[in-house]
Please model this.
Amino acid sequence: MRVLLAVALVLVACVAHAAVARDTRRQTLTAASIHVHDGDTFHVGAQAFRLRGIDTPELGQPRAGPARERLRALLHSGPVIVVPRGEDVYGRTLVDVYVGGRSVARILNAEGYAKRRPKPRPRMRRSLSGSLDMCGSLHIPTTRATWDVPG
Model:
C-alpha cells in the first residue's frame, strides 16, 4: 500500500511539474500577420516584438537590409511560435521566436546577421555616504539643504 501511495505521489509531482514547465503564454503567428521592421524587430498589428538575446544592424547601417530580409524569410517559412519574455525600454515585447522548432535568434547569429546581445548589467549608484547606488547618480552628503546655500 505504501509503495502504491509513493508511486501515486511521484506521478502527481511529475504531472504538476510538466504543467508548470509548459509555457502557456506562447502564441502561434501566421506569416501574413507579421510585418518585419528590421533584423531583430517585427510587428503584428500595433504590437512590436523584439528578438531577445541578439542585436542586428539598425536601418541605414551596413548589412541592415540583408538582416531584415533574412528575418522576413525565416518568419515567412512556416508557423511562428512566439514566447514573451519581458519588455524593453521602448515598450516592445522581448520574445524568443521559433520556426520549425529552431530558434530564429540562434539562426541569425549563426549565419552572421546578428551578434549576441549581452545581458544588461545593473548600474551602480553611490549611497548617501558617497557610494554608488543602482541608477548611476552620485549622491554627496551635505549638512545643508540646497535651498539654504547662499547665492
